[in-house]
# Entry
Amino acid sequence: FDEVQCGLGRTGKFLAFQHYGITPDIFTLAKGLGSGFPIGAMVAKEEFALAFQPGNHASTFGGNPLACAVGLAVLEYLLNHGLIEHVSLTGDYFKEQLILLAQRFPFIREVRGMGLMLAIELNQNQNGPEIVRRCMEQGLLINGIEQHILRFLPPLIVTRSEIDWAVNIISQVFLACQTG
# Structure
């Protein structure tokens, strides 16, 4: 499983696959593991890990002591400071606010995602890049995909008031786009 972006709390669980009640044989971690510091990891059940011998699975910076110390500090913080529960609660709140937007703006086809990994899919004729640009002009950075998908991955420490601020900007931009 690829947990590079969705793992380590991003979806409101420690690892995204936990939402589905499964345990993969192998999974990968990266972005959240370093919280901005470059590090990656591959985690495998023992029977599969034994297939890897020294030298047959390489990495450019494998085992960097500073990166490993950062990764350990991130894991300890995630597990000991209620951050995953915070992501679950604020993610639910954010999704609820996006669903309310969908009820107001008929050009929203779908709100999807979990935790703080969310997206709005717009009708194909909506100009996603224009919405992204207008949000950026008001100080809100969002990601646009395929011309009609708006992607939201705020920091795991985002607050409800920051979500309200973002949703207000999105609403204003949607109103402006709807009226011309």
Notes: The chain has two domains: 16-81, 84-179.
